[in-house]
Amino acid sequence: MTTRKTMKLILKLFQLLLFISACSVASAQIKQTARFEREQKNNDKEFILVSLKEKGLVLVRDNEKYKEGKQLWEIIRLDTELKEVWSFELYVENRLRIVGYEYRDDLVYLLYREGEHEASDLTLYTIDIDSKELRKYVIKQELTFRVTHFSALSHTIALGGYVSNEPAILLYHLENEVTKLVPGFFVSDTELLDLRVNTNNTFNTLIAMRNTKQKRKLILKTFDSQGALLLEDEMEIDSKKVILSGISSTLINDELFIAGTWSEGNSKQASGIYTSLIDPFSEQAINFYDFGQFDHFLDYQSQKRVAKLKQRSLQALKVGEVPDFKTYAIPMRLEEQPEGFALLTEVYIPSTSLNSYPYWNNSFSSPYYGGYSPYGYNPFMNRYYTSPYQYNNNQQSGETKMIYASLIVFDLQGKKNYDYGLKLEDKKVGGLEQTADFMYYKESFALAFKKEKEVKFLSGHPEDSVEIDTLTSELSYPDETVRNDSGDNSAIRLWYQNAFYSWGYQSIRDRSPNAESPTRYVFYINKIEVL
After folding, report:
1. What is the pTM of this model?
2. Phi, psi of 313 (to 5 degrees)
3. What three-state secondary structure class fits 337?
4. Angle formed at CA 455 by CA 453 and CA 458, multiple of 5 degrees
């Protein structure tokens, strides 16, 4: 009898050990593995961070110093361990202000505009991240061109925007310094939703036709680096539906995939997410999902309301109608992996102070607005010109509350697979900025957002349970503590593979008895890895 009880006890212990072992394998470990600091003074401008993926980061800052009529900009390159590789000073003409940045093929692109007028010339600087070779280009403007998108191809940059409220695409070739307008645009009642460069040095444009007298269409075009049309696919949209936004994939897989938000009628709030695989040789369906069809998209609501909204969604689906629930939602990033596609969409409450000017992130007044802050203000939380125009979002001059981040994974056929979400705790941002970011790597995922000195992670694998972790910013010295962290001027972004970088501004107190200065202010970057 004793032996039987002992054997049962050993078996239970063995099962418990197996369970613990399985949990430890399945659970992701979130660790801060490196940190960079730079002293910050009250009048210092905030850094712009340019990701070089596996080659590090480049930091760009206006130092507000002048020499012989030119303005000094500080450029710093860090490696993936956040160690400084090099730094130098860039002198630009006094009237130039930065309006965009990009990275491709070991070149950092910094785009400036002269003055405030949309017809003024653009100045482009390229910096080789290895040799530090600097080249300057002046892009003459013969038209009043409101630029909304900026992307780099090999030896070419693509600018998307509007001329007299009609979409236009401009290519500037660096080798011969020639500007070319891409044909096939300048169409009334159309909107440029996306301009995105593919991995094979071609680029896509996504256009929504909104002429209510004709059938509404969603048009994707793919061009080579010289502006020659390679592919065109027109998709007719139900007359009751309107496309609010869209993002295209980048041909990591063999198929081009598009996703975005849609609504019914003329509402600026979204009813759901649409997806489609591009096929110019046959009719293809656009998948329209209302928000109630996802497992977790509505989780920022109360459980009782979620149940009610999902029931309404099921009832509407049975009779072919659209549920009445709508919300302000905007797609922020589309990631492509061999296993499928992942879409980050954020839900927000818009500012009560709205500018009637319809182009998001395209006001050419001074970008440094707002009250005094000891940390400065960063208008480039997203890249200025690569933030897409959004039909459902007016230019906002006040604070926006970001309330929820949704991560939806689709299979290679473009059908929804699974989804997760993370509450953003009503984080306030200036205008409308990407707040969360995610990793979708080797079939695992991590969804994260930063609020003050903490980063919150939702991570896991679709076949395993998910976990929520909170990581507190670790300082450089054991006797130091954080007095204050600039929650509004900080964020987290995917860096490469399983690594993120988060940044912000901190007031740090040194409690050691021999401290020369008990309080210091720093700009910092933390490297965070999902292991």
Report:
1. 0.87
2. -65, -45
3. strand
4. 165
Q: Are 432 and 400 in contact (CB under 8 A)?
A: yes
For residue 395, how far is the Cα from the chain centroid? 17
Residue among 355, 366, 358, 332 at smallest CA distance from 98: 366
- Work out the pLDDT band at 399, boundaries 50, 70, 90: confident
Residues 351 and 358: their CA atoms lie apart, in Å, by: 15
- For residue 393, count CB atoms less than 10 angstroms from its CB and return exposed for 0-12, middle for 13-18, buried for 19 or more: buried
- DSSP letter assigned to residue 292: G
- DSSP type of residue 24: H
Which residues, other chains included, contact 41 with Cβ-Cβ below 8 Å and sequence gap of 6+? 521
CA angle 10, 16, 18 (to 5 degrees): 105
CA atoms within 13 A on the CB side of 23: 7
Residue 365 CB burial class (10 angstroms; 0-12, 13-18, ≥19): exposed
CA–CA–CA angle 125, 383, 354 (5° rounding): 130
Q: Are 386 and 157 in contact (CB under 8 A)?
A: no
The model's pLDDT over 155-211, given as tens digits with 9 standing for 90+, comes to: 999 999 999 889 999 999 999 999 999 998 988 889 999 999 999 999 999 999 877
Please say whether the beta carbons of 348 and 330 come within 8 A: yes
